[in-house]
Amino acid sequence: MTPITEVAGRRLALSNLDKVIHPVTGTTKGEILHYYATVAEALVPHTANRPVSFLRYPDGPDGQLFFTKNPPPGTPSWVRTVPVPHSDDPRARQVVVEDLPSLMWAANLVVEFHTPQWQADAPAVADRMVFDLDPGAPAGVPECCRAALWLRERLAADGLAAYAKTSGSKGLHLLVPLEPTPSEEVSAYARGLAVEGEAELPQLMLHRMKRSLRPGKVFVDHSQNAAAKTTAAAYTLRARPEPAASTPVTWEEVEHGREGGKLAFVLGDIADRLARHGDLLAPLLDPGRAGRLPGKAG
Fold first, then answer.
1. Which of 18, 41, 48, 211, CA to CA, is 20 to 30 A from 90?
2. Of 211, 213, 281, residue with least CA distance to 42
């Protein structure tokens, strides 16, 4: 029998709690649900009012993985959905994870959480910019950190503040809070910085996605600023053999990572980090921290 539990007044059926999802560590679905309940206060503000896409991996990272934007069958009526029309389906809607019950309902499906850089009530108007730093072997964490530190300085020269998190996979994400700006303008600016980085540090940074160019370099993926693209949300677990979490990090940790220091975290690390640092991405939620792209009128 599937156990029924109550979460903040909502009844949820939580299934297969003993099922191992992350085989390297033997992490069960029940432990995953406990993790999300523990980090909800930090995670939910970063998904609230944003349409969420799910990468589902119900049988673990070695099973079937499928990406979905539509609300899954059986989505409860109390889970908020918002219209996200597109050419293939002008009536399309997506889920918004805006509270603990909707987070736990979604986590029970075993998913990665991905969000766009805009909010549901302002489609294609970005309130943040993202750079996804993806290393091509043999490049790794030190090279990603070098690229991140260059971008941080270059953004600061334009009056923009950057905040870092691990991707939960191989690389780093840099996030920049912005005053509401059309996504195409953010995309153009981000691409320009990636091109500039490659020109200044051609042995380190790459702005083109072509696989043959990637070995030993860091691909500065600026494309996730396009209105139709999404990025792994802060604190989401990833579909990997170990329960890796996309984890906010300090710039001191990035500097340490440049010298070869550890910069990877799993679900058991996050509660202690939140107790020690709080939410390092909280500035993204503060309109007073939002920057303006160069050339934008005040």
1. 48
2. 281
Segment 79-121, tens digit of pLDDT: 999 999 877 888 899 999 999 999 999 999 999 999 999 999 9
Task: Supply the DSSP string of 96-129, one letter for each residue.
Answer: E--SHHHHHHHHTT-EEEEE-SB-TTSTTEEEEE
Helix axes 267-277, 29-47, angle to 10 degrees: 40
Is 198:205 a contact under the CB 8 Å cutoff? Answer: yes
Residue with tokens 């099922």: 19
The model carries a pTM of 0.95
User: How far is 131 from 201, CA to CA, in rounded Å?
Assistant: 16
| CA dist., res. 177 & res. 164, Å (int) | 12
- Which amino acid is located at 15 in the chain? S
CA Rg value for the chain: 19
Question: Cβ neighbours of residue 92 under 8 Å, at least 6 residues apart?
Answer: 69, 70, 83, 84, 85, 86
d(CA 95, CA 102): 9
Q: Which residue has the tokens 């979905």?
A: 68
Q: Express each pLDDT in 128-137 by its tens digit.
A: 999 999 999 9
Cα separation, 281 vs 279, whole angstroms:
5
- Smallest CA-to-CA distance from 274 within 109, 42, 46, 79 is with 42
User: Which strand ranges, in their side-by-side order, compose the sheet holding 205-206?
Assistant: 205-206, 218-221, 125-135, 172-182, 163-166, 248-249
